[in-house]
């Protein structure tokens, strides 16, 4: 009889020999939370993870060969970004959005096209707010 264990990340059963890396459960939780920030996890997967979770935060958990690529040496900032890195990424994204909205505001043709799209969608020419940035419609964007 061969002994099999589940991979800590993908929950597939593998022979113990194929679990090539031991990582703390905290690293797996951090990687999953990073993925959850980027996309919404499926409800069934969340329930399955909650049922199969039997390790404490700093227990060592075996990871299969396929999943071990996410925990390479020297790449901790990718699967476990620091708070400063997360704040910096949000700031960069916010600045890009503000620059794009400001550029659109001062370009009457793009503003006119955006106003036409807004009218088709029913949102009208009132103030447009996107993630804390409010941009009023341009004065030249009146479609008579």
Protein structure class: alpha+beta
Detail the poorly predicted runs.
Answer: none
The largest sheet, given as strand count, sense and whether it forms a barrel, is:
2 strands, antiparallel
Strand order of the largest sheet: 1-2
Q: Give the strand tally.
A: 6
User: What is the number of helical segments per DSSP (H or I, 4+ residues)?
Assistant: 5
Measured by DSSP, the beta-strand proportion falls in: 5-15%
| Backbone CA Rg | 24 Å
Helix % is 40-55%
- Overall pLDDT level: 76
What is the ordering of alpha helices and beta strands?
Answer: EEEHHEHHHEE
Principal-axis shape: elongated
Distance between the termini: 80 Å
Which short descriptors sum up this protein?
144 residues; elongated; alpha+beta; 45% helix
How does the SSE layout of this entry go?
Blueprint (H helix, E strand, L loop, with lengths): L3 E3 L6 E3 L5 E4 H14 L4 H10 L7 E4 L12 H4 L3 H23 L2 H14 L6 E3 L2 E3 L9
Antiparallel strand pairs: 1-2, 3-4, 5-6
Describe the 3D structure:
This protein is an alpha+beta fold and 144 residues long. Helices cover 45% and strands 14% of the residues. The protein has 5 helices and 6 strands; from the N terminus they run βββααβαααββ. Strands 1-2 form a two-stranded antiparallel sheet. Strands 3-4 form a two-stranded antiparallel ribbon. It has a two-stranded antiparallel sheet with strand order 5-6. The chain starts with a strand and ends in a 9-residue tail after the last strand. 9% of the residues are buried. The mean pLDDT is 76.
């Amino acid at each position: 009889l061969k002994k099999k264990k589940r991979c800590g990340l993908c929950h597939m059963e593998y022979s113990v020999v194929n679990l090539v890396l031991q990582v703390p459960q905290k690293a797996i939780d951090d990687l999953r939370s990073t993925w959850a920030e980027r996309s919404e996890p499926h409800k069934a997967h969340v329930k399955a993870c909650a049922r199969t979770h039997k390790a404490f935060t700093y227990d060592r958990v075996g990871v299969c060969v396929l999943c071990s690529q996410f925990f390479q040496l020297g790449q901790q900032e990718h699967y476990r970004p620091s708070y400063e890195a997360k704040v910096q990424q949000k700031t960069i994204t916010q600045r890009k959005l503000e620059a794009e909205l400001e550029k659109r505001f001062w370009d009457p043709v793009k503003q006119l096209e955006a106003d036409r799209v807004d009218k088709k969608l029913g949102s009208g020419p009132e103030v447009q707010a996107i993630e804390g940035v409010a941009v009023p419609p341009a004065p030249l964007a009146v479609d008579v």
